[in-house]
Amino acid sequence: MRLVLIPLSVILLIDIAGSYFVVRHVANSVYDIELNEIARELLLHVTHDGREFGFNLSAEAERTLFLDEEDDVFYLITTDDGDILAGDPTLPARKKRRNGSETAYYDDVFDGKPVRIALLHSQPLVHPASEPVTIQVAETQGKRDRYMRTLLLQVILPQVLLILIAGVLIWRGVAQGLAPLRKLQHEVGMRSHLDLSPIHATDVPGEVEPLVGAVNDLMTRVDAVLGFQERFIADTAHQLRTPVAGLKAHLELALRETDFTQVQRALGHLYTSAERLSRLVSQLLSLARNEPHNVVANFQPFDLNQVALRATQDWVPHAYKKDIDLGFEASEKPVQLNGEAVRVTEMINNLVDNAIRYTPSGGHVTVRILQDEESAHLIVSDDGPRIPVEERQRIFERFHRLLGTHEEGSGLGLAIVHEIATLHNAAIALEDDTDGVGNTFTVSFPIPHAEQHQA
Known about the structure:
Layout: H1 2-44, E1 46-48, E2 53-55, H2 59-65, E3 73-79, E4 84-87, E5 104-110, E6 113-122, E7 133-140, H3 142-189, H4 209-256, H5 260-289, E8 300-303, H6 304-314, H7 316-321, E9 325-329, E10 336-339, H8 341-358, E11 364-371, E12 375-382, H9 413-423, E13 427-432, E14 439-446, H10 448-454
Parallel strand pairs: 9-11
Antiparallel strand pairs: 1-2, 3-4, 3-7, 5-6, 6-7, 8-10, 11-12, 12-14, 13-14
GO cellular component, one term: plasma membrane
Subcellular location: Membrane
Organism: Oxalicibacterium solurbis
């Protein structure tokens, strides 16, 4: 409310000040005419015989001329030499005199009272060829002040009432306009911290609707993030329960055994379980890190050929241990993409790991890079067991593992691949190998110049 009252108060003060100066000018204009008439009447009684000035005004004429029931009137007539011809010698003389027949007016203080003075500097009318004289007529300002008060009341009072009425109307309008917002504030304030459902705001001003919509969008996104976190925590707890239980069982067995050979065997199982748990935790962290709502993308240009080659080379020792032929086929030309090379490397690692893990000994895994006018293709093919058609829609889900497989896995590798592909606006597809065995994963990245051309 202060935002409304303060500007109105400032406007009112400015209006009062402006009205005061206007009314003062009007009052002075009215009563200055009387002072001018007195000054010119006095000029009629100034004489000059060719040698010196004279002043001829009877006492009765003086009383009639200066008769005023409310204000005191004083006058002073002087020559340019400073000689006083008539009037009150204590009236302060004006040092700067105005030449010409027009009368000048100014405010001053005489005998402790504010006065209005008319100053006429002119030649006597009875002897125009003589030197000019200065006539000052001073009047106290009682009539002027009373007239100004009357005018101010007539001018300012309606304006004050108008501004007050406007203030009341504005206050009521603002109060009615803010009522839906207060209702909205109460509704939001009474909500539980767990309630992230959209705000159903009715009768809110049109200017506020975009804000309510933006808040609802934000709450929807926050609800999605919290839902993901809840599901992620629940799934993580479920997935960690088995390896942790295995660690505990192998550790208890090692503690109970007294035979060194059995202890060594238990420790070997313990190490395998710990390694499996470490890989699971690493994949869980990678999955959380690559969730689209957790990523602030910092895309930079990189060559897909170089990134894929380095990633494939890191898997050569693993393929060698399993007697798998791991090959790499680069594109004929550099493949420049915009993205995060580190995340793309992580994607390739998961695809190659998945291929090596499920390809039998003596098999083949090949990483190829192809490029056409619109896309760059990362292709990872193997000759392992073919993924059934009915399973292909779910292989990119978290913790989903193929039935009938004996390989250890968390079911997170392909989920990570899918998240990184989504981050890079890439499409991922699973196809059958041409010879009837194995699987081929193809990730198609948009080429930067193709995106710009389409835009």
